[in-house]
TrEMBL record:
The name this protein goes by in its record: Cytochrome c oxidase subunit 5A, mitochondrial
Subcellular location: Mitochondrion inner membrane
Complex and partners: Component of the cytochrome c oxidase (complex IV, CIV), a multisubunit enzyme composed of a catalytic core of 3 subunits and several supernumerary subunits. The complex exists as a monomer or a dimer and forms supercomplexes (SCs) in the inner mitochondrial membrane with ubiquinol-cytochrome c oxidoreductase (cytochrome b-c1 complex, complex III, CIII).
Biological role: Component of the cytochrome c oxidase, the last enzyme in the mitochondrial electron transport chain which drives oxidative phosphorylation. The respiratory chain contains 3 multisubunit complexes succinate dehydrogenase (complex II, CII), ubiquinol-cytochrome c oxidoreductase (cytochrome b-c1 complex, complex III, CIII) and cytochrome c oxidase (complex IV, CIV), that cooperate to transfer electrons derived from NADH and succinate to molecular oxygen, creating an electrochemical gradient over the inner membrane that drives transmembrane transport and the ATP synthase.
Amino acid sequence: MFRTTALRMHSLVKGAMNVSKPSITTTRFMSSHSTETDEQFDARYENFFNRKDIDGWEIRQGINDLCGHDLVPEPKILTAALKACRRVNDYALAVRILEAVKDKCGGRVNEIYPYLIQEIRPALTELGIDTPEELGYDKPELALQSVYEIH
């Protein structure tokens, strides 16, 4: 009885192995390079932030995508993002964008960040937005005096 069952199973397995299987080819596009120029990149993000129907979530998404790149955004992109924050009436988001840009400057913050603030200063004045430094956010709020410097 075992022999007949084993022979039947062998014939079933052998028949299943003879069935042709479709070949699947996978393709990965990781090595393809972007053909977008710097000007096109800047125009794409500037147009994204200049949309009239943009909302706060989309502004956050655009800034998050922008911060994911290995670059510091151009002043014209920042100006468009700050104006978008003004259109949706989100002052806190505008200040957070400035904080994120300062963080993106990395080790060259003393060179890049003052230049960016200088370039976007007219837009900041027009929109009534203060920088994090003007608001005192660059210093800890509840910092206590060091015990070693009291006397």
